[in-house]
Amino acid sequence: MMDTLLIHVHVPKCAGITVEKHFEYELGSTGFWKPRRRTRKLPLGLLGYKYNPRLPGPADQIRAISGHFAGSSLAKLFANRRIVRSIILREPQSLMLSWYNFRVMRYMLKGQKPHSFSLFMRSMRMNPVSHFLLERWVELPWVRMSRMTDDMKAAALDKTLKTFDYVVDISDTDILIASLSAQIGIADCAPRRNTAEQIQQKTGWELIGLDDLSEQDRFLLRSRTSLDRYLWRRWVLKENVVFDHSNATGFLFSELVRPSYQLQRRAVGRFG
Fold it and tell me: Which CATH topology does 4-271 take?
């Protein structure tokens, strides 16, 4: 079984901590590798691969890899290994609401004040899952991403997701862990980690749901996640859909104005 190497792409707020902690507990520090960011001296968006390629031990001892910085070129470090690629995706509206609640509670734990959902959405990158995959897994520099149309991005993501052995919904996390674990002969059950409910007990924050949003916020949520929704429908629900370019987003303009919203978000967190 040592010839099989698991690579799991940890999309934010998609049960990645549960997967990683399971691998780490079962395999230890030499059997599990969580790649770290390549550098803090330059913006990662300017670079190709984003991970530090230094291995934690001999390559033949590593049996599973997972993390936010895992890139497709990792496979080149493991010649003659059978690579099993997996990823968990999530319905975009559910994901963004979870991300918002998590971020607000994390700030509250630091003594900061909550910010609005609309400010959160405007401070986040449009189609965050799609651009996360293009930047981290496909390893595209920001300049190249900014020149691509949404149609081009959809095609690139379709091409790369075809190479994955597992593309599943977050509701199937336990099934995925059991299947992956069986391939390398480790325990197939994992406790849930880093859930909103666990953090909520520490903050008392009332979790925001879709019904709590205004119509304007719902429109903002839909309009800024159209490409992510296509990926979820195409690769998780297995629907025979074509990306609707009429819902194309103004990525470049959004990226140029996004820092101002990030500054506003930090100011609200500090001063209210």
Answer: Rossmann fold (3.40.50)
DSSP state of 236: I
Q: Are 212 and 219 in contact (CB under 8 A)?
A: no
- Spatial contact of 89 and 192, defined as CB atoms under 8 Å apart: no
Cβ-based neighbour number of residue 195 at 10 Å: 13
Query: Exposed, middle or buried: residue 133 (CB in 10 Å: 0-12, 13-18, 19+)?
Result: buried
Q: Tokens for 176?
A: 């995925």
C-alpha separations of 260 from 33, 108, 118, 129, 267 in Å: 36, 22, 14, 21, 11
Neighbour order of strands in the sheet with 166-169 = 32-33, 64-67, 4-9, 82-89, 166-169
Q: What is the secondary structure of 35-55 as a DSSP string?
A: PPBS-SSS-GGGSS--B----
| C-alpha span between 115 and 118 (Å, rounded) | 9
Q: Are strands 64-67 and 166-169 parallel, antiparallel or unpaired?
A: unpaired
CA angle at 266 for the pair 143 and 223, rounded to the nearest 5°: 55
Q: What is the DSSP letter of 188?
A: -
Residue-wise pLDDT for 71-129, tens only, equals: 999 999 998 899 999 999 999 999 999 999 999 999 999 999 999 999 999 999 999 99
Q: How far is CA 204 from CA 27, 93, 100, 102, in A?
A: 35, 23, 15, 12
User: For the whole model, what pTM was predicted?
Assistant: 0.93
Could you give the C-alpha distances from 68 to 57, 209, 241, in angstroms and in order?
20, 26, 28
